[in-house]
Design brief:
heterodimer; A: about 130 residues; alpha+beta; Alpha-Beta Plaits; 2 domains; 2 helices; B: alpha+beta; 9-stranded antiparallel sheet; 4-stranded antiparallel sheet; 8 helices; about 15% helix; about 30% strand
């Protein structure tokens, strides 16, 4: 079993597709919708898929064929290293504890595997070093 | 016992023994303060955090024809127009109107000037017989203008309460984002590296002390505003807001690495500055105090949802516990966030250590002692 994150974009034509149901019933995938929103330019979903590699690959092909734009999304939060001062304001506001200080250097390390793209850290950063491009 | 003269002589000969306030902890633990004081000449401290009461005096030089600027904007941020014709002061918390999604303020203007960026100057004046021009719109850089120096009325707060929030909604404060129902705690200090925690009664730091300010040389100009010597102490160090420093330093020597504009969401803009103060190890007592560790330094925890000035103290925690990532409050684990960069505080203390070891930075004996009395008075609302 592996786990992968994708960013899906929906248009008006496929906005009401039940992605989670299809993934479970057709591909035996355990989907976890981390984030979903409908915006003026369509829908955006951040989706985590857990399953066998070949099932995940087949799901990606299926969704793509259904007209849904799907892209790997493994660096959800972008951290501008020039702006970040390693203050640590982000540490305690993150619900999944993504940010941890390196005990030797006190650099604040972002663990992308834990990040659920919730965006709670964005307005906690006093140096505007964090962005979540959706 | 050592004197400033002896220490400076050793610095000139590049023989001075310099430790950071963090490195010296283990030395004093293993050798004792007496022996360590014989070995060590200087301990360097460092901090890098938000210091709202900061700003810059600038002199633009005269245009042809000249203008007496009474209304001044730098990148759209208001600067003071009540000095002589082309002098101004821009404060860290002045914020641009229509600043976009994120706030942009005086702290950012100061950072941009130090970075060498072009900054737009727009100014207006009444137009007088001697200053005929009524408006000007141009660009300046730090190199172009005459003088530029930070003059910060209050920096290096000796200690500062940690913050939490008991309400059921998130608060956005100058102590950062405080999650509902005490889900997090924020604190702001470099603790065992912090200048005024390592010389708690200002035995060596005083008026005229040469310091590291924003990457260049600066000086302690005066006691800071809200200077208070009556705070309760633990292990000989105040556990709440106490002494403060007014600092001055030439912006043209500074480095953006140590001077950054900030925006605390829904609070406003500020300036993060790196400050480092050298402590001459004159005797074992100074040595002992400079070797204090995060385990021995405490601060109060206060509830920022209480808007009255007198906030109840919910507890007292050591900086070692706060820095561990969580505190234990009445049986509950609460996660913590520092707001002051320990990495950069260390970088400041190391840089100052380098300067002293290389004989480039001599210590100054204070030309005057900072007050040994003084308390913070409230503002009464009178009708």
């Amino acid at each position: 079993m592996i786990q992968k994150r994708y960013k899906l974009k929906f248009s008006e034509e496929n906005l009401q597709e039940s992605v989670a149901y299809i993934l479970v019933s057709k591909f035996n995938i355990q989907p976890n919708i981390l984030r979903a929103e409908v915006r003026d330019d369509g829908g955006v979903m951040v989706l985590e898929m857990k399953g066998r590699q070949e099932d995940i690959d087949a799901s990606v092909v299926y969704l793509s064929d259904a007209g849904i734009s799907i892209k790997a999304f493994d660096k959800q939060i972008l951290k501008d290293l020039d702006k970040c001062t390693d203050c640590g304001a982000c540490i305690s506001v993150c619900p999944t504890k993504c940010f941890t200080p390196d005990p030797a250097t006190w650099e604040i390390v972002l663990n992308y595997d834990k990040c659920i793209a919730c965006g709670a850290c964005l307005n906690a950063c006093p140096f505007q070093a964090l962005t979540l491009p959706l | 016992m050592k004197t400033y003269v002896e220490i400076n002589e050793r610095i000139r000969q590049k023989k001075a023994v310099v430790y950071t306030a963090e490195e010296v902890i283990d030395l004093v633990r293993s050798k004792g303060a007496e022996k360590a004081a014989e070995k060590v000449d200087v301990v360097t401290t460092g901090t890098f955090g938000a210091m709202c009461s900061s700003g810059a005096f600038l002199n633009f030089g005269h245009s042809d024809p000249p203008i007496r600027m009474t209304d001044v904007r730098l990148n759209g941020v208001e600067a003071y127009g009540g000095l002589a014709a082309v002098d101004t002061y821009i404060g860290a918390t002045a914020t641009r109107e229509n600043g976009g999604e994120f706030g942009y303020g005086g702290g950012h203007v100061i950072e941009e000037l130090i970075a060498g960026n072009r900054v737009r100057l727009r100014a207006w004046g009444p137009g007088t017989d001697c200053y005929v021009r009524k408006d000007i719109d141009t660009y300046i850089t730090l190199d172009d203008i005459n003088e530029a120096y930070l003059f910060n009325p209050r920096n290096c707060y000796q200690n500062y309460a940690s913050a939490t929030n008991t309400l059921d909604r998130t608060l956005y404060t100058y102590m950062g984002k405080l999650l509902p129902r005490m889900k997090n705690v924020t604190y702001s200090t470099s603790g065992q590296l912090s200048p005024l925690l390592n010389d708690p009664h200002l035995e060596t730091i005083g008026g005229g002390t040469r310091i590291f300010l924003g990457g260049g040389e600066g000086y302690v100009a005066w006691q800071g505003t809200q200077y208070n010597v009556n705070a309760p102490e633990r292990n000989g160090v105040p556990t709440s807001g106490a002494r403060t420093l007014a600092l001055i330093g030439d912006m043209k020597q500074m480095d953006r690495e140590y001077v950054r504009g900030m925006e605390m969401y829904r609070y406003g803009t500020s300036l993060a500055i790196g400050v480092g103060i050298p402590i001459p190890i004159l005797n074992a007592d100074v040595m002992k105090r400079a070797a204090i560790s995060d385990e021995e330094l405490y601060t109060n925890l206060v509830d920022y949802s209480v808007t009255e000035k007198s906030r109840a103290i919910l507890g007292q925690y050591s900086y070692a516990e706060l820095r561990s990532g969580s505190i234990d409050h009445e049986g509950h684990k609460i996660r913590t966030s520092p707001l002051s960069s320990y990495r950069k505080a260390r970088q400041v203390a190391e840089k100052l250590k380098d300067w002293i070891e290389n004989g480039e930075f001599l210590l100054t004996e204070p030309t005057f002692k900072l007050p040994t009395s003084g308390e913070v008075k409230p503002l009464e609302v009178r009708r």
